[in-house]
């Protein structure tokens, strides 16, 4: 029962599977068949049984269908057999008709083929004409390109290439010759680039060689324009009655030096004004720029141009090692730099973007720093003020030229102030030599004046004013020597020379006035002062020359106010202006005069020492000669003659010299007595020495120099007088009793000095025969000497302990 139940369940399922197999595409039968095997056991066997049953049913149906249509099929075959005979007859007729038609159409076919062939040829000719009409413009343009290349019209050639590529080649791009042309165009472009670059290199080399001429022309034009402005301003000032200021003149004839051109050329050879375009052919630059612009490689060209120009700038800025030796070296250096930047300025204004203002400013700042460093270094080697002045004029023209092209030049004018200091130093060195020559050539004697004409000549050179001298009749003498007017003239010449450097520096009158006064102060306080001091210290300058130097410095000191007026007349700046610098000549000449006075005192003392060294005392003489020593009388006569010369000196100077001489003589005589090498002194020698001191006192009392009050000059010998009186009178009791008292008769006698001299005399008394007899007759005096010596030693020891 169970099996029968399962069989009943699977029968519908097998029917469904069979229906799916019959109704489904053969490619999709697989899943259906798989379900047969996935069912219960023995399901396959049952399915096969079911399938066989289904097949048998279909066979039965087919057989029924065939039986039903069999008679109709037999009838159709019978009819076909009847038609077969008629079909064969028709075939024979058609074949015959086709043969006859073919025979009739052979001529038509031949003619038709001829027509077709002619038509093809005609079409080909038309096509060729059309293609040639397309190709001929291309070939003509390419031929034009070749002609342009041969004629070196490279910019036009590039434009032709653009037309070929954009217009003509696209029309014939399918042809091989077009491909060859297309392949050749890049090579032609490279050739053009190389050729144009070669032209540019030639151009750069050319302007490098001609930058000197370009810069010289530009600087000359700037100078001519400046000179024209100066002349115009002078005419206006003359017209309106104005005083011409420094930038436009130097007083008197020296203005001719100012207007002397830096770039000298003969007037008859003067040509028309040339511009940079007249001197340089810029077409290679324009052509190359256009070519690279067309090629779309403008940046490469700009970079190359700027790089090469920077290299040239470094070469131009590199000076020659001996540039500082001549002005031509500086001129060549400046003209090359100006030529370089004039070209760059022209390129800036006529091209778009090849160089920019930022680029030229950067290049100029780099160049300016290098120029300043070079000028600072090379100008330091210049020792000739004329060369420094010409360098300054070149720098001014150089700066004015480049300023006219829009380049900032303030730093160059700042540099000129540094060079101005150096210029002043070279002037000071030059004038130091001038002053030395003047002093060497001077005879240090008053200037002799024979007639009125000579007097006016001297007065025109030096502002001398002395009513007493003017009243004197000719011939007469001026108190100063020839060096005074010469020095005064040279100081004015120095001011002129210093003024030359101040021109064209674009400074105010006040600043120029200040510069002149400061440089003049340096000349007076350093150069002239040094020359005077060196002159005073020279061995061959004697007392007479020193006296004349003092007189000269007095007159030069008085002339300082005229020098200040001279500067004021040049600059039109009043001396009462708050910031006006005063001249320090007064202190300079005072210092020189003091030095000369000190040298007088020194030389006078040296002369006294020379006379004193001639002293030849017999320190053991028993009796004096009865007259003063010969050396001392010669010394006194010398002092009298010298002090006669001192009458031209200021009173205090002569009095100081006289007092210094007397004091030095007194000190020398005292040192002679107390000389450690002198061991013995006799009383006769003391008496002889006393005679010499008396002559000194008589000389002092004779008032060799007026102005001393009372016996002031005699006080120079008071120490000697009291010491000699003490020994001549032998008044030891008074000396010892009054020692230390303000009213002591021998107040100026030092115990140590008295002891030294007394010991020299005691040693002499022991060895002298006369004193030996004296000791026998008067032993008490010898004991007194010993007693005095002991007391003096106690005083000296007491002084030492007190000290």
From TrEMBL:
Q: Which UniProt keywords apply?
A: Exocytosis, Transport
All copies of the Exocyst complex component EXOC6/Sec15 N-terminal domain together span 50-219
User: Which InterPro entries does the record match to this protein?
Assistant: EXOC6/Sec15, EXOC6/Sec15_C, EXOC6/Sec15_C_dom1, EXOC6_Sec15_N, EXOC6PINT-1/Sec15/Tip20_C_dom2
Listed GO biological process terms: Golgi to plasma membrane transport; intracellular protein transport; vesicle tethering involved in exocytosis
UniProt entry tagged with the keyword Transport? yes
Is Lyase given among the entry's keywords? no
Exocyst complex subunit EXOC6/Sec15 C-terminal domain location: 412-760
GO CC, alphabetical? exocyst; plasma membrane
Q: Extract the Pfam families matched here.
A: EXOC6_Sec15_N, Sec15_C
Reported function:
Component of the exocyst complex involved in the docking of exocytic vesicles with fusion sites on the plasma membrane.
Q: Which family does it belong to?
A: Belongs to the SEC15 family.
Protein name, UniProt field: Exocyst complex component
Q: Which gene encodes it?
A: EXOC6
